[in-house]
Amino acid sequence: MPQLHRFDNGSKIGNVSHEQLKFLNDHLMDDTATEFCVNSNTLKCLAEFGADPMLIGMLEDALGHDSWMEFTWTTDGPPTPWIQVVPAKPGRRTRRA
Q1: Is 50 within the bounds of a domain?
Q2: Among 22, 53, 75, 96, whose CB has the most other CB atoms within 10 angstroms?
Q3: How far, in Å, are 9, 11, 61, 67 from residue 64 at the CA level?
Q4: 25/95 Cα distance (integer angstroms)
Q5: Total tally of structural domains belonging to the chain
Q6: pLDDT value, residue 79
Q7: Average pLDDT of 57-75?
Q8: C-alpha span between 29 and 41 (Å, rounded)
Q9: For residue 67, what pLDDT band results from cuts at 50, 70 and 90?
Q10: What pTM did the predictor assign?
Q11: Cα→Cα distances 93→48, 77, 87, 90, Å
Q12: DSSP bridge partners of 37
């Protein structure tokens, strides 16, 4: 089942059906983007176009007080960030004789 995740922090928005995902792709996706960008006006337009009220509610909750939100979808968990910081492993230092 597809999952929606905020692009900025990777937090899970929720699970969507394949029909809901197709609706988002049909109404929000352009040819060059792999993520969606919405604001409150976009969500109102999607509702007018017949979006599932549960989907709109989920996106409104995720948007919260932000003016806009960028999100993506996956089928296997949150997306991997482009840059990943890996802490150094503490190790023992040995003396050379």
Answers
A1: yes
A2: 22
A3: 14, 13, 5, 8
A4: 60
A5: 1
A6: 55
A7: 92
A8: 16
A9: very high
A10: 0.73
A11: 65, 38, 17, 9
A12: 70
Residue 31 lies in a domain: yes
Over range 74-94, report the average pLDDT.
60
Write out the residue range of the structural domain in which residue 28 sits.
3-74
Residue 80 has pLDDT above 90, yes or no: no
Q: Does residue 25 sit within a domain?
A: yes
Block residue for tokens 């109404």? 27
The answer to the question of residue 84 being in a domain is: no
Written in H, E and C, the secondary structure of the chain is CCEEEECCCCCEEEECCHHHHHHHHHHHCCCCCCCEEEEHHHHHHHHHCCCCHHHHHHHHHHHCCCCEEEEEEECCCCCCCCCCCCCCCCCCCCCCC
Q: Which amino acid is at 73?
A: W
Place of tokens 């492993």: 89
Q: pLDDT digit string (tens) for 8-63? A: 888 899 999 999 999 999 998 876 666 899 999 999 999 999 999 999 999 999 99
